[in-house]
UniProtKB/TrEMBL annotation:
Protein name: Glutathione synthetase
Metabolic or biological pathway, per its Swiss-Prot or TrEMBL entry: Sulfur metabolism; glutathione biosynthesis; glutathione from L-cysteine and L-glutamate: step 2/2
Reactions accelerated catalytically: gamma-L-glutamyl-L-cysteine + glycine + ATP = glutathione + ADP + phosphate + H(+)
Cofactor note: Binds 1 Mg(2+) ion per subunit.
Annotated source species: Neodothiora populina
Gene3D superfamilies per record: 3.30.1490.50, 3.30.1490.80, ATP-grasp fold, B domain, Glutathione synthase, substrate-binding domain superfamily, eukaryotic, Glutathione Synthetase, Chain A, domain 3
Amino acid sequence: MSREIYPKYPPDLSEAQLDYLLTSIKDWSIANGLAVRPVPSFVSKDQDPAGSLAVTAPVTIFPSLFPRSCFEQGLGIQTAYNELYAAIASDEPWLKQIVEELAEVDDFIAELWKVYLTVKEEGIVQDITLGLFRSDYMVHLDPMETDAKPTIKQVEFNTIASSFGGLSSKVSEMHNYLLSTDAYPHESASVIKPSSLERSKSIPLLAAGLAKGHNAYGKPKTENPLCVIFVVQDLERNVFDQRHLEYMLLARQGVRSFRVKFDSVMAHTRLDEKRNLLYTPPHAPKQTWEVSVVYFRAGYAPSDYNGKADWDSRLHIERSSAIKCPSILTHLAGSKKVQQVLATPHSPHLARFLQDKEQAAAVHKTFAPIYPMDTSEAGQEARKLAQDPETATRYVLKPQREGGGNNVYRKAIPEFLKQEPESHWPAHILMEMIEPPALTNSILRNGEVQQGGVIGELGVYGVCLWRLKKDAQGLDQIFENYQAGYLLRTKGDQSEEGGVAAGFGAVDSCCLVDV
Ligand code: ADP
Ligand code: MG
């Protein structure tokens, strides 16, 4: 049973109040691009053969309550996390040990590593890397302590395709708009008030990050103008989230960008003899562009790679002199195995990357215990915990995958392990479940309102731009390091997964409370 720490929330609504609120949300969201392309189960292909419809993104009707101290904790340590992951992604010898072990049981990791080695062999021509990161947390209340204070624990750290920076700015704007138009009942004014609603500036801050990368690339090396490319999936429903960054990049930074589908990278880009990446847009082929930054919003999951041609595309980009967001090493640094190695109880590794003791301690506080599932001592302990139906209920088992839908929770773990050959167990990590306090909200999804118990996940964005030492033998210099706004994603407490795009959650913003 989750503990109660919040005031009664959200307020009850009369029919007229609910009607006004929903009309406001439906109109504001479309007018301002808080939208997604509809799922086929909501709008079928027959109803929208041209794929031209857009609908309100799944959103919470009220901004969810969130402890102020936890919010400040999360935003406050983002620059330390940026530095940590920049340092990990620059330390090839350290990563190599982890990755090579993992590659034995995980083909996807093995292929990524192969791409890196191929480029290393030929010589790395771009030593600057851009990270648009997102560190995800949940509020945790220690179930063993009756008067435990809420604190945040990290769910995962994303180093590739960290999504929802576009929609998170929009949803926080919308909740502010709703408050300013009296859409929330006056009885709740002591909780939902301007000073409690936190805006997320992730659109301008992430777009500025892309521009920093673009500027760090320097002058064009060819006679062509410079551009950024967004490498995207073919059927992307979360397209407006990305568009907000593109539009801001042009409007505020004056940087031109193009969307290139992952499977058409080879058709429309080429490398010159110096490995400059050149892009010729099929819609305007008279002008070729030199690519300064490649921003991946695809290529993070095995399902994005349908054979050798797609791996060739990833290699092609990695070989180039464009700044990658992220590089292969940075992508690998974001694997759950790396998170586990840092967060295994008594792990010595954090200090290697964060020399500042205070920063390291603050980061360490946000780790939930994570164990390997290999044959090491910690792994043996984890195997016992995971196979015992009683202790398994405190854990989640995760493979090295991104994008939701892959985890095995609590009492399902022992059964799952019975089906899985033991040789494959090390491809997983075992993580203690984070236990958030009880919270209620309403989610509007596909025109329907669902009210009930919810769980929020805070994502804090970070921008980091750094240079490697030769052959990735360490971090040479950090040029940019800042916190870049936040995301709150909220899901029903009956669904263990949290991906909004996967259909399990909603975008939300924080209504801060002192608890
Ligand atoms: P993915 O790469 O699929 O996003 P995550 O590690 O973020 O993987 O896990 C997916 C979801 O599972 C999270 O959004 C969260 O809702 C839930 N989850 C993951 N780890 C934990 C945990 N330790 N405690 C509670 N819930 C978790
Ligand atoms: Mg996640």
